[in-house]
Amino acid sequence: MHEASHMMVGGVPTEADVIVLAAGTGERLGRGTKALVPLAGRPLLSWALESVLTNTCVRDVIVVANPHALDETATVIAQTSDAKRIRVVPGGATRSESSTRGLAALRQGTGHVAVTDAVRPMVPPGTIDRLSGQLTAAGNTGFSAVVPAIPVFDTIRRSGTDGTSLGTVDRDELRAVQTPELFCRQCLEKVMALTPDPAVLFTDEAGLIEHYGGKVLIAPGDPANRKITIERDLSIAEAMLILTALQDGRRPVRTTAEPLAGLAAAEEGTNSNE
Protein backbone atom coordinates (compact mmCIF):
# COMPACT_ATOMS: atom_id res chain seq x y z
CA MET A 1 0.00 0.00 0.00
CA HIS A 2 0.99 3.58 -0.54
CA GLU A 3 2.46 5.25 2.52
CA ALA A 4 0.88 8.35 4.05
CA SER A 5 0.62 9.81 7.54
CA HIS A 6 -1.83 10.91 10.23
CA MET A 7 -1.44 14.66 9.82
CA MET A 8 -4.40 17.02 9.96
CA VAL A 9 -2.48 20.00 8.62
CA GLY A 10 -3.29 20.38 4.94
CA GLY A 11 -0.67 20.54 2.23
CA VAL A 12 -0.88 21.46 -1.43
CA PRO A 13 -3.61 19.32 -3.05
CA THR A 14 -2.50 16.69 -5.53
CA GLU A 15 -4.34 16.58 -8.86
CA ALA A 16 -7.33 14.26 -8.55
CA ASP A 17 -10.04 12.70 -10.63
CA VAL A 18 -13.53 12.17 -9.25
CA ILE A 19 -16.00 9.30 -9.57
CA VAL A 20 -19.61 10.31 -8.87
CA LEU A 21 -21.79 7.29 -8.11
CA ALA A 22 -25.24 7.97 -9.54
CA ALA A 23 -26.61 4.54 -10.46
CA GLY A 24 -28.82 3.95 -7.43
CA THR A 25 -32.47 3.10 -8.06
CA GLY A 26 -33.70 4.83 -4.92
CA GLU A 27 -36.04 2.08 -3.73
CA ARG A 28 -36.42 3.61 -0.25
CA LEU A 29 -37.11 7.06 -1.69
CA GLY A 30 -39.52 5.65 -4.27
CA ARG A 31 -39.00 8.28 -6.98
CA GLY A 32 -37.04 6.38 -9.61
CA THR A 33 -33.37 7.05 -10.29
CA LYS A 34 -32.32 8.80 -7.10
CA ALA A 35 -29.61 11.01 -8.60
CA LEU A 36 -32.24 12.64 -10.83
CA VAL A 37 -34.73 13.42 -8.05
CA PRO A 38 -35.21 17.21 -7.81
CA LEU A 39 -34.09 19.29 -4.86
CA ALA A 40 -35.01 22.98 -4.94
CA GLY A 41 -35.69 22.78 -8.67
CA ARG A 42 -32.54 20.89 -9.68
CA PRO A 43 -31.60 17.18 -9.76
CA LEU A 44 -29.50 15.94 -6.86
CA LEU A 45 -26.76 15.12 -9.37
CA SER A 46 -26.62 18.76 -10.45
CA TRP A 47 -25.95 19.91 -6.88
CA ALA A 48 -23.28 17.22 -6.42
CA LEU A 49 -21.47 18.18 -9.63
CA GLU A 50 -21.55 21.85 -8.70
CA SER A 51 -19.74 21.05 -5.47
CA VAL A 52 -17.17 18.80 -7.18
CA LEU A 53 -16.27 21.53 -9.67
CA THR A 54 -15.46 24.04 -6.90
CA ASN A 55 -12.23 22.13 -6.24
CA THR A 56 -9.09 23.41 -7.95
CA CYS A 57 -7.34 20.01 -7.82
CA VAL A 58 -10.03 18.20 -9.84
CA ARG A 59 -9.13 17.21 -13.39
CA ASP A 60 -11.75 14.81 -14.78
CA VAL A 61 -15.14 13.71 -13.46
CA ILE A 62 -16.78 10.38 -14.26
CA VAL A 63 -20.50 10.03 -13.51
CA VAL A 64 -21.48 6.38 -13.12
CA ALA A 65 -25.15 6.47 -14.03
CA ASN A 66 -28.17 4.21 -13.94
CA PRO A 67 -27.99 2.30 -17.26
CA HIS A 68 -31.70 3.03 -17.82
CA ALA A 69 -31.23 6.79 -17.37
CA LEU A 70 -28.12 7.57 -19.43
CA ASP A 71 -29.85 10.14 -21.64
CA GLU A 72 -31.40 11.96 -18.69
CA THR A 73 -28.06 11.94 -16.89
CA ALA A 74 -26.31 13.31 -19.97
CA THR A 75 -28.84 16.15 -20.07
CA VAL A 76 -28.05 17.11 -16.48
CA ILE A 77 -24.34 17.04 -17.25
CA ALA A 78 -24.80 19.21 -20.36
CA GLN A 79 -26.40 21.89 -18.19
CA THR A 80 -23.48 21.87 -15.74
CA SER A 81 -20.73 24.46 -15.87
CA ASP A 82 -17.52 23.06 -17.39
CA ALA A 83 -19.43 20.04 -18.70
CA LYS A 84 -16.55 19.17 -21.03
CA ARG A 85 -14.66 17.77 -18.03
CA ILE A 86 -17.47 15.34 -17.19
CA ARG A 87 -18.19 11.97 -18.81
CA VAL A 88 -20.89 9.41 -18.10
CA VAL A 89 -20.60 5.61 -18.02
CA PRO A 90 -23.25 3.01 -17.16
CA GLY A 91 -23.20 1.67 -13.64
CA GLY A 92 -23.34 -1.91 -12.41
CA ALA A 93 -25.64 -3.92 -10.19
CA THR A 94 -23.69 -3.10 -7.02
CA ARG A 95 -21.75 -0.15 -5.63
CA SER A 96 -18.50 -2.08 -6.01
CA GLU A 97 -19.21 -2.82 -9.66
CA SER A 98 -20.10 0.81 -10.35
CA SER A 99 -16.94 2.03 -8.62
CA THR A 100 -14.86 -0.38 -10.69
CA ARG A 101 -16.42 0.86 -13.91
CA GLY A 102 -15.83 4.47 -12.92
CA LEU A 103 -12.20 3.79 -12.07
CA ALA A 104 -11.64 1.98 -15.38
CA ALA A 105 -13.02 4.97 -17.30
CA LEU A 106 -10.48 7.44 -15.90
CA ARG A 107 -7.46 8.64 -17.83
CA GLN A 108 -4.05 7.93 -16.35
CA GLY A 109 -1.94 10.62 -14.75
CA THR A 110 -3.46 11.71 -11.43
CA GLY A 111 -2.13 10.82 -7.99
CA HIS A 112 -5.47 10.86 -6.18
CA VAL A 113 -9.02 9.78 -6.94
CA ALA A 114 -12.15 10.76 -5.01
CA VAL A 115 -15.35 8.73 -4.84
CA THR A 116 -18.54 10.54 -3.92
CA ASP A 117 -22.29 9.97 -3.97
CA ALA A 118 -24.62 11.92 -6.21
CA VAL A 119 -27.13 11.82 -3.36
CA ARG A 120 -24.98 14.07 -1.16
CA PRO A 121 -26.02 17.41 -2.66
CA MET A 122 -24.62 19.65 0.08
CA VAL A 123 -20.93 18.78 0.17
CA PRO A 124 -19.11 21.97 1.25
CA PRO A 125 -17.16 23.68 -1.56
CA GLY A 126 -13.48 22.78 -1.61
CA THR A 127 -13.88 19.52 0.31
CA ILE A 128 -11.84 17.49 -2.18
CA ASP A 129 -9.08 20.12 -2.17
CA ARG A 130 -8.94 19.88 1.64
CA LEU A 131 -8.86 16.07 1.70
CA SER A 132 -6.25 15.91 -1.05
CA GLY A 133 -4.10 18.42 0.79
CA GLN A 134 -4.32 16.34 3.96
CA LEU A 135 -3.37 13.13 2.21
CA THR A 136 -0.52 14.88 0.39
CA ALA A 137 0.75 16.44 3.62
CA ALA A 138 0.58 13.05 5.30
CA GLY A 139 3.71 11.98 3.44
CA ASN A 140 5.01 8.46 3.94
CA THR A 141 3.67 6.98 7.16
CA GLY A 142 0.98 4.48 6.29
CA PHE A 143 -2.31 5.98 5.06
CA SER A 144 -3.85 5.11 1.72
CA ALA A 145 -7.05 7.14 2.01
CA VAL A 146 -8.75 9.94 3.90
CA VAL A 147 -12.47 10.07 4.66
CA PRO A 148 -14.58 12.85 6.21
CA ALA A 149 -16.65 11.84 9.22
CA ILE A 150 -18.63 13.38 12.05
CA PRO A 151 -19.09 12.27 15.67
CA VAL A 152 -22.12 10.21 16.68
CA PHE A 153 -24.06 11.92 19.46
CA ASP A 154 -26.99 9.54 20.00
CA THR A 155 -26.78 6.64 22.42
CA ILE A 156 -26.16 3.52 20.33
CA ARG A 157 -27.30 0.07 21.44
CA ARG A 158 -26.58 -3.30 19.94
CA SER A 159 -29.68 -5.39 19.35
CA GLY A 160 -30.22 -9.14 19.27
CA THR A 161 -32.34 -10.76 16.57
CA ASP A 162 -35.27 -10.90 19.03
CA GLY A 163 -34.97 -7.22 19.89
CA THR A 164 -33.18 -7.76 23.20
CA SER A 165 -30.69 -5.02 24.03
CA LEU A 166 -27.11 -6.29 24.04
CA GLY A 167 -25.74 -3.17 25.68
CA THR A 168 -24.53 0.23 24.61
CA VAL A 169 -21.61 0.96 22.30
CA ASP A 170 -18.90 3.45 23.26
CA ARG A 171 -19.85 6.34 20.95
CA ASP A 172 -16.53 8.11 21.60
CA GLU A 173 -15.05 5.66 19.09
CA LEU A 174 -17.85 6.00 16.53
CA ARG A 175 -17.89 8.26 13.49
CA ALA A 176 -20.50 8.62 10.75
CA VAL A 177 -18.56 8.53 7.48
CA GLN A 178 -19.43 10.84 4.58
CA THR A 179 -18.34 11.18 0.98
CA PRO A 180 -16.32 12.22 -0.93
CA GLU A 181 -13.69 9.73 0.16
CA LEU A 182 -10.22 10.38 -1.26
CA PHE A 183 -7.63 7.73 -2.16
CA CYS A 184 -4.12 7.25 -3.34
CA ARG A 185 -5.06 6.24 -6.87
CA GLN A 186 -2.61 3.36 -7.15
CA CYS A 187 -3.86 1.96 -3.83
CA LEU A 188 -7.50 2.00 -4.92
CA GLU A 189 -6.68 0.49 -8.31
CA LYS A 190 -4.72 -2.28 -6.62
CA VAL A 191 -7.48 -3.37 -4.22
CA MET A 192 -10.26 -2.96 -6.79
CA ALA A 193 -8.39 -5.37 -9.07
CA LEU A 194 -8.29 -8.09 -6.41
CA THR A 195 -10.86 -10.88 -6.36
CA PRO A 196 -13.63 -9.74 -4.00
CA ASP A 197 -14.24 -11.71 -0.84
CA PRO A 198 -17.83 -13.04 -1.16
CA ALA A 199 -18.11 -13.31 2.62
CA VAL A 200 -17.51 -9.60 3.19
CA LEU A 201 -19.86 -6.77 2.20
CA PHE A 202 -18.24 -3.39 1.64
CA THR A 203 -20.47 -0.34 1.93
CA ASP A 204 -17.70 2.00 0.78
CA GLU A 205 -14.32 1.90 -0.92
CA ALA A 206 -12.46 2.79 2.30
CA GLY A 207 -13.71 -0.48 3.79
CA LEU A 208 -12.13 -2.33 0.89
CA ILE A 209 -8.82 -0.53 1.48
CA GLU A 210 -8.86 -1.55 5.16
CA HIS A 211 -9.84 -5.14 4.37
CA TYR A 212 -6.67 -5.58 2.33
CA GLY A 213 -4.40 -3.99 4.94
CA GLY A 214 -4.48 -0.31 4.07
CA LYS A 215 -4.88 2.48 6.61
CA VAL A 216 -7.59 5.12 6.40
CA LEU A 217 -7.30 8.58 7.93
CA ILE A 218 -10.45 10.10 9.42
CA ALA A 219 -10.79 13.85 8.81
CA PRO A 220 -13.45 16.20 10.21
CA GLY A 221 -16.65 16.12 8.18
CA ASP A 222 -19.54 18.58 8.01
CA PRO A 223 -23.01 17.98 9.52
CA ALA A 224 -24.56 19.73 6.51
CA ASN A 225 -23.21 17.03 4.20
CA ARG A 226 -26.32 14.88 4.46
CA LYS A 227 -27.11 11.84 2.35
CA ILE A 228 -30.55 11.74 0.73
CA THR A 229 -32.09 8.35 1.47
CA ILE A 230 -35.76 8.92 2.33
CA GLU A 231 -38.33 11.64 1.70
CA ARG A 232 -37.60 13.34 5.01
CA ASP A 233 -33.99 13.87 3.95
CA LEU A 234 -35.18 15.88 0.94
CA SER A 235 -37.33 18.07 3.16
CA ILE A 236 -34.44 18.70 5.56
CA ALA A 237 -32.04 19.50 2.72
CA GLU A 238 -34.51 21.92 1.16
CA ALA A 239 -35.09 23.63 4.49
CA MET A 240 -31.33 24.08 4.87
CA LEU A 241 -31.08 25.56 1.36
CA ILE A 242 -33.94 27.96 2.09
CA LEU A 243 -32.33 29.14 5.32
CA THR A 244 -28.96 29.56 3.61
CA ALA A 245 -30.56 31.62 0.85
CA LEU A 246 -32.38 33.82 3.34
CA GLN A 247 -29.19 34.38 5.32
CA ASP A 248 -27.40 35.36 2.11
CA GLY A 249 -30.17 37.73 1.09
CA ARG A 250 -31.21 35.60 -1.89
CA ARG A 251 -34.70 34.49 -2.90
CA PRO A 252 -34.98 30.77 -2.10
CA VAL A 253 -36.33 28.21 -4.55
CA ARG A 254 -39.00 26.00 -3.02
CA THR A 255 -40.35 22.73 -4.38
CA THR A 256 -42.35 21.26 -1.50
CA ALA A 257 -46.07 21.82 -1.63
CA GLU A 258 -46.33 22.59 2.07
CA PRO A 259 -43.08 24.10 3.38
CA LEU A 260 -42.41 24.29 7.09
CA ALA A 261 -44.53 27.09 8.52
CA GLY A 262 -41.59 28.83 10.13
CA LEU A 263 -39.64 28.90 6.91
CA ALA A 264 -42.64 30.16 4.96
CA ALA A 265 -43.11 32.99 7.43
CA ALA A 266 -39.44 33.84 7.31
CA GLU A 267 -39.53 34.01 3.52
CA GLU A 268 -42.62 36.24 3.56
CA GLY A 269 -40.86 38.56 5.97
CA THR A 270 -37.84 38.71 3.69
CA ASN A 271 -39.93 39.32 0.58
CA SER A 272 -41.83 42.17 2.24
CA ASN A 273 -38.56 44.05 2.54
CA GLU A 274 -37.71 43.77 -1.14
Largest sheet descriptor: 8 strands, mixed
Helix content: 25-40%
Give the count of structural domains.
Answer: 1
Give the H and E element order. Answer: EEEHEHEHEHEEEEEHHEHH
Fill in the CATH topology.
Spore Coat Polysaccharide Biosynthesis Protein SpsA, Chain A
The CATH architecture comes to: Alpha-Beta Complex
Structural class: alpha/beta
Residue-averaged pLDDT, rounded? 87
Determine the N-to-C terminus distance: 58 Å
Query: For the record, what is the CATH homologous superfamily label?
Result: Spore Coat Polysaccharide Biosynthesis Protein SpsA, Chain A
- Our count of helices gives 8
**What is the number of strand segments?**
12
Overall geometry comes to globular
Briefly, what CATH class? Answer: Alpha Beta
Radius of gyration: 20 Å
Query: Beta-strand percentage?
Result: 15-25%
Poorly predicted parts: 2-9, 256-274
Description:
The protein contains 8 helices and 12 strands. It has 274 residues and is α/β, with parallel strands linked by helices. It is globular and about 45 Å long. Helix 7 (231-247) runs parallel beside helix 8.
